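Researcher: Please predict.
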Amino acid sequence: MKKLIILMAVALISAMQVDAQEKVSEKELVGAWMMDSMLYDNGKTIAFGLKQGYRQFKYYGPKGEYAAAGISLRMKGRVLIGLEITPQEYGEYTFKDGWYSEMGRKATNDGLNLTDKNTFKGRWQNHLDVWKRAPLSDKTVKYIVDCCKTKNIPTDIEQDILKEMFSE
């Protein structure tokens, strides 16, 4: 009987821990995130950071604003010669009752899972991505998001360059 009570207590504690993990508020997604790693279905893992010279960035605004960019260090040997921000997307996201969608794509329930206030995992195509909250200043986040906003909206001078250099 004692063993049964202990077993039931352990099961209850385990269930409470799982329940606590699942109750991270969806509002915790708001903010800036950097990809930590990718785990491919074939077992290959890619980690991101200074050693690789590349980061994926995502921003989730409180009213559904979404931005994504790649950020690369340009190196010559061991010397940093520049930084490149490659805007990828800017638009909207939804995240409700565990269902996630960005840029109007079909919502999935495995695309984003908040594991705690500073980590989320999400499945994309043939890999699982792990993201960590980005300790970035508001100024830095705004700059990257602004880069993403203008990705598909050429400025007046860019329109002129297109006409002058690439029209027949």
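Model: Residues 2-22 form the longest helix (21 residues).
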